Amino acid sequence: MSVKIYNTLSRKKEPFVPIEEGKVSMYVCGPTVYNYIHIGNARPPIVFDTVRRYLEYRGYDVKYVMNFTDVDDKIINAAKEMGEDVYAVAEKFIQAYKEDTSALGVKEGALHPRVTESMEEIIDFVQGLIDKGYAYVSEGDVYFRTRSFDGYGKLSHQSIDELRSGARIRVGEQKDDPLDFALWKNAKPGEISWDTPWGKGRPGWHIECSAMVKKHLGDTIDIHAGGTDLTFPHHENEIAQSEALNGKSFANYWMHNGHINIDNEKMSKSLGNFILAHDLIKKHDPQVLRFFMLSVHYRNPINFTDELLESAKSGLARIKNAYDNLQHRKAASTNQDSSVKEVMETIQELIARFEEEMDDDFNTANAVSVLFDLAREANVYLQQEQTSEQVIEAFTKAFEDLGGVLGVTFAAETELLDDEIEDLLAQRVKARKNRDFQEADRIRDLLKEKNIILEDTSQGTRWKRG
């Protein structure tokens, strides 16, 4: 069975046929780096990292590109508030993004082009659209003539007339048609800017990705991906400007992940339910956060609650415990087990089921269920009096291979050193002093998992190994 991808462009699942056999070109829209990412921003890197992992598991050589938008109105405003320049603010949050996503198991090796490092290509791209009559200069701004591109609306499945009814010209915009969108913005006094044939300024949001895709992956790519909120207008505009300039299909498969709700409500700062991934990682095992994200199909919305996160924690622990049980039994195993053939067939059936689920539009929710079944079968097998080293190695490899696709890592527990325990105790004392009892309880639970028993006394907290 070949991999099938739900293509937003066609609104149906299609067999995946790459442009070049055995290779995949994949572009994912990355963050605008003006703050720490929130939990919704964390879903695309987790989802599409998993897509990349599975394609590599299937033998493809994946060239994976995720950009950083490092110049934008939000970054400029943040720089003013922080009293720093745009480059410093962007660099700070690029590094924060890398740290957070690395903790969430996102693989290294992706190419991360930045807008400020792609300016020559962006300017050339805009000039090419002007030369072809698809764009025009208006008082230092450059706009794309939306009606000049016949296919506009094909990704979001909207007609040009439907889009026209909701389009407006904002104050300060001097464009010919409300549907036209900015490719380049005229410089405002004191703002960061670049020289162009039509004057100083900086790029519009949509043109950045088109230029970086062309530079790093070519005119036509296999997969373009991002959050569902980017379908319109961002990805729609990318298609228009790229296909207008290049005269070719821009991307063969469009993938979009669903949004995240917090306790059944849309996440927003005004509702006070805005959760930064940076903060969650401090309170929860980031592998649990990733596992939680993958417990729902990527196209469906996720409802984030403490109860569901706790359920994901228990589920992941069950899988890891089964793996640990295998390693504990391995040394005592022989090759005298009569059930080897039957159990090996069961393992292969589970691997085939996992692949079948992932082949079907990367259905991680069902793939996770297969991991639970693998854990159950491993635990049943370990109840036998005689176990085979061959079978245990086969179970181990299945856990590592299939878990690796989902970003689940298995590692032997390491014992905490005395100074590490003392440091955690100091953090707990501080948390209790600040009345952050959730954090204090988290540290107690962490130490308990490491077999460290705490005793709170009038003279302070004492500890001992259990």
Summarize the structure in words.
The chain is α/β, with parallel strands linked by helices. The protein has three domains: 254 residues, Rossmann fold, CATH 3.40.50.620; 130 residues, Orthogonal Bundle (Isoleucyl-tRNA Synthetase, Domain 1); 48 residues, no CATH class. The protein is built from 15 helices and 15 strands. Strands 4-3-9-10 form a four-stranded parallel sheet, with helices on one face. Strand 5 and strand 6 form a beta hairpin. Helix 1 packs across helix 13 and helix 10 packs antiparallel against helix 13. The chain is globular, with a radius of gyration of 26 Å. The model has no long low-confidence stretch (mean pLDDT 91).
Short description:
The protein has helices at residues 39-57, 73-82, 86-103, 119-131, 160-166, 205-216, 231-246, 277-283, 286-294, 306-330, 340-359, 364-381, 389-406, 418-433, 437-449, and strands spanning 4-7, 12-15, 23-28, 61-66, 135-138, 141-144, 181-186, 201-203, 221-227, 251-257, 260-262, 265-266, 302-304, 452-457, 460-465. By secondary structure, the chain is of the alpha/beta class.
